[in-house]
Amino acid sequence: RLMDVVRQTLEGEHIFPDAPPTVEIVMAKSTEFTKTELKVLRHLLRGLSYTRIAAEMGCEMSTVKFHVSNMLQKTGLENKLQLALAVSDVKLIADLAEE
């Protein structure tokens, strides 16, 4: 099997996908979330308040609320707790490294 991978790589084939798999989160696909929205989600999953998220990201609290609102609209969910639970259930961002 290892030699197959080496041969495929030498022939220019992509062994690993160019992007992470797409995950469905209620009515949205994970690819519909922006990088900034994913950062906000990581902080939400850590249990941080809007104020703390804003401080960590170096932005205004209204910006954090804007991103959460966008994600709620995309998913059809009603609040940030539902959003955090839905994202946790599909394990979308559990171990993503900060860029």
Defining key terms:
single chain; 99 residues; mainly alpha; Arc Repressor Mutant, subunit A; two-stranded antiparallel ribbon; 2 strands; elongated; disordered C terminus
Question: TL;DR of this structure?
Answer:
This protein has 99 residues and is mostly helical.
Describe the structure.
The protein has a single domain, classed as Arc Repressor Mutant, subunit A, CATH 1.10.10. The protein contains 5 helices and 2 strands. It has a two-stranded antiparallel sheet. The C terminus is likely disordered.
- In round numbers, the mean pLDDT is 82
CATH class: Mainly Alpha
The second-level CATH architecture is Orthogonal Bundle
Name the structural class.
Answer: mainly alpha
Helix content: 40-55%
Q: What profile does the largest beta sheet have?
A: 2 strands, antiparallel
Helix segment tally: 5
Strand % is under 5%
Radius of gyration: 17 Å
Quaternary organisation of the protein chains: single chain
Uncertain stretches:
94-99
Q: What is the CATH homology-level superfamily?
A: Winged helix-like DNA-binding domain superfamily/Winged helix DNA-binding domain
Name the helix and strand elements from N-terminus to C-terminus, one letter apiece. HEEHHHH
Number of strands: 2
Report the span from N to C terminus.
33 Å
- Described by the principal axes of the CA atoms, the overall outline is elongated
What's the domain count? 1
The third-level CATH topology is: Arc Repressor Mutant, subunit A
